[in-house]
Structure formats: structure tokens, C-alpha cells
């Protein structure tokens, strides 16, 4: 059989074999051009551990085909909506020999929004109008820092401008922005709203962390203590999909319970014995034996009554009720006010009788008295 030859073979001599294709080498500028990215981005990927280190040749760093392939993988995953943190996990699983299909499904299930709420956009003028019509660049900047607003950069616009100066903003949660607008309309300062959001976010993140620890301990630990197989990753993604609504449902139920309990308790504490709906505080007046007491004898019963035969709700200033409660205690507040009112009525009745006795009587009354 005739030998395969390559150009340059000489008859009668050992044939030359075809040289292997040369490995493509890239400087960082060439790699950026070939991958459609920038030198700065490549270096950022290296710092994050997304891209293998280049080969050092003398004073130059040399990149190869594997770097180009990795950059293209990263670009495709970014287009699908993955974050760089998620991409790093995926690539590590890929490097460990795990198929990306199931892992991609798992990461996608975890990484997608955990709410059905759709983001919206709002123009700067509309935003200012919703919050009193006066521009507050500091408040806008703080909202951007908190992620309540995200500046929309128009194509061709210069980077580096102040976030508060953007002409349009993305609103990840329109409901959250609407809540802030309602609070502001009710008189809450913007600084107090943002401060409360920071506090609330820290507490909610703690609750979310506890949810994750709980489900990891009882459900997901068998998938996370080793690189999952394709089937395991797919099964875990299905569990995430099933359990996802439970966190929101539990939070809704517990928040509703806590708000009702604590709000009722607060109303009772601040309004005390003022007339309230029966569901909140019951009768606003004393229906059992009344007590009248002063400092040092708060539990003593009154010498003049064993109870109140009839009761009528009466609205009193909250400050008055608080003062009386501080003096005699909540238990004796109603009885003290009733006793004070009775004393005032009796005093005025006695004054009226005394005044009537001092008035000059008509002569015919004197004559009648003499005849009698």
C-alpha cells in the first residue's frame, strides 16, 4: 500500500508526518478582541476565579483556546440571566466532571426571582411627584444604595454620573416603592423610611437564613455534601420549586398573626380605658365593684359603694386617662374618675343649695313662714 506523503517527502527516505496544528496563543488584548469582551473584564474574571491563569512565557502572559472557550461560556450564561457567583459554581461543577444540564436547572431555580412581582420603570419627574414634588437627591441616592431604585443608563450616556441624576429608574419592587410613598404621605420622613427598611432587611435576612438552614438540615443536605449527579441536581431543583412558596406563605401567616396581636396590645396600652370596640378592649366602663384608692392603698374598696348599677361610655382625653392610671393604676382608673366626678357633682349641688339659702326671700314667703 502506498505510503501517505506530505509535501517535502523525499523518495527512499523515511516519510515526514504532518505536524500537529499549532496551539493558538493570545495576548490579553487579542483574547479580548476574539471573545468580544474587554481587557478589564478578563482581569476581573481572573480575580473572581472564573478564568484560569494564563501561561507565563518570559515577561508575557499567554492565553490559549481554553481561555477563549471559557469566556464564551461565561458570556452565554450571563445572557441567560445568571449572576457571576452562580456562574462560578456552575463552572466549578463542570470542572469537577458534573454535567451542566441538571446543575444549570438547579442554579436557575434558586437564582430566579422569589416573587411573582414584575419590575417597573419610573421617570425622575414622576418619582419626585410621588414624594411631595420636591427633589431630594440624597433620598434618591439612598434608595439606589438600598436597591429600591436602579438607575437606567441610556445607550451612549456617559458613565460615572450621580445615580440621583438619572432620568429614569428601574423599580425591582413596585409594591415596596408604593409602601414608601404611602408612609411619606402619612407624614413619615424619607430618612426614617430608609432607616426602617435597613433594619427590616437585616431582620428578614436573618429569617431567610434560618429557613435555609432548616431546609438544608432536613431536605437538601443529601444533595449538597458532594458534587451532585445530573439526576440529583434535577431532583433538587424540583424540590426547590415545590418548597419555594412555603417560605412566603409561612411569613404571610405569621406576620398577620403578630401584627394583630401586637397592634391590639399597643392600642390597649395607649388608650387604656377609653371606649374601644368590644373586639379590642371590651366595655369601656367598669361593670363590677368599683374601687377608689390613692397612693399606698390602691386595693382598698370604696366605703360608699359596692358597685356601679349602670354604665355609659364616655370619651375622655387620653392624657387625662394616662395621668389617672399613673396615680392609681389601670385597675382603679375607671373607679377613680367616677368617684371624682361624683364628688364634683355633690360639691356643686351643695354650693347651689348654700347660694340659694343666701339669696333674699320674697316677703310673701316670710309671711307664710310666720303664719305657719
TrEMBL record:
Listed Gene3D superfamilies: 1.10.1660.10
Stretches assigned to the HTH merR-type domain: 25-93
Domain of life: Bacteria
Region (Disordered): 1-23, 351-372
Pfam families with a match to the protein in the record: MerR_1 (PF13411)
GO molecular function: DNA binding; DNA-binding transcription factor activity
Compositional bias ranges of the Low complexity kind: 13-23
Protein's UniProt keywords contain DNA-binding: yes
Alphabetical keyword list: DNA-binding
Annotated Basic and acidic residues bias: 363-372
Protein name as catalogued: MerR family transcriptional regulator
Organism per entry: Streptantibioticus cattleyicolor (strain ATCC 35852 / DSM 46488 / JCM 4925 / NBRC 14057 / NRRL 8057)
Amino acid at each position: 500500500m502506498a505510503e501517505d506523503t506530505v509535501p517535502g517527502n523525499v523518495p527512499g527516505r523515511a516519510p515526514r508526518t504532518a505536524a500537529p496544528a499549532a496551539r493558538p496563543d493570545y495576548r490579553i488584548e487579542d483574547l479580548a478582541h476574539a471573545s468580544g469582551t474587554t481587557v478589564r473584564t478578563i482581569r476581573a474574571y481572573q480575580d473572581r476565579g472564573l478564568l484560569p491563569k494564563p501561561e507565563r512565557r518570559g515577561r508575557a502572559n499567554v492565553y490559549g483556546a481554553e481561555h477563549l472557550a471559557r469566556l464564551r461560556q461565561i458570556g452565554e450564561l450571563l445572557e441567560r440571566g445568571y449572576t457571576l457567583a452562580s456562574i462560578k459554581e456552575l463552572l466549578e461543577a463542570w470542572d469537577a466532571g458534573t454535567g451542566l444540564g441538571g446543575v444549570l436547572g438547579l442554579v436557575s431555580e434558586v437564582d430566579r426571582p422569589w416573587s411573582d412581582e414584575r419590575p417597573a420603570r419610573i421617570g425622575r419627574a414622576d418619582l419626585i411627584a410621588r414624594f411631595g414634588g420636591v427633589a431630594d437627591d440624597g433620598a434618591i441616592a439612598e434608595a439606589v444604595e438600598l436597591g429600591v431604585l436602579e438607575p437606567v443608563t441610556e445607550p451612549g450616556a456617559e458613565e460615572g454620573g450621580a445615580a440621583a441624576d438619572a432620568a429614569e429608574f428601574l423599580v425591582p419592587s413596585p409594591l415596596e416603592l408604593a409602601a414608601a410613598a404611602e408612609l411619606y404621605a402619612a407624614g413619615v420622613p424619607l430618612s426614617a423610611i430608609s432607616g426602617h427598611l435597613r433594619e427590616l432587611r437585616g431582620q428578614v435576612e436573618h429569617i431567610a437564613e434560618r429557613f435555609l438552614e432548616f431546609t438544608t438540615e432536613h431536605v437538601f443536605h443529601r444533595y449538597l455534601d458532594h458534587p451532585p449527579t445530573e439526576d440529583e441536581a434535577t431532583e433538587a431543583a424540583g424540590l426547590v420549586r415545590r418548597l419555594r412558596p412555603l417560605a412566603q406563605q409561612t411569613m404571610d401567616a405569621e406576620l398577620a398573626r403578630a401584627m394583630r396581636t401586637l397592634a391590639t396590645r399597643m392600642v390597649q396600652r395607649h388608650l387604656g380605658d377609653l371606649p374601644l370596640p368590644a373586639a379590642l378592649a371590651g366595655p369601656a366602663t367598669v361593670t363590677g365593684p368599683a374601687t377608689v384608692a390613692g397612693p399606698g392603698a390602691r386595693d382598698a374598696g370604696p366605703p360608699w359603694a359596692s358597685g356601679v348599677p349602670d354604665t355609659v361610655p364616655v370619651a375622655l382625653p387620653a392624657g387625662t386617662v394616662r395621668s389617672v392610671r399613673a396615680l392609681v393604676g389601670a385597675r382603679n382608673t375607671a373607679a377613680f374618675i367616677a368617684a371624682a366626678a361624683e364628688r364634683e357633682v355633690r360639691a356643686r349641688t351643695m354650693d347651689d343649695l348654700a347660694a340659694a339659702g343666701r339669696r333674699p326671700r320674697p316677703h310673701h314667703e316670710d309671711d307664710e313662714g310666720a303664719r305657719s
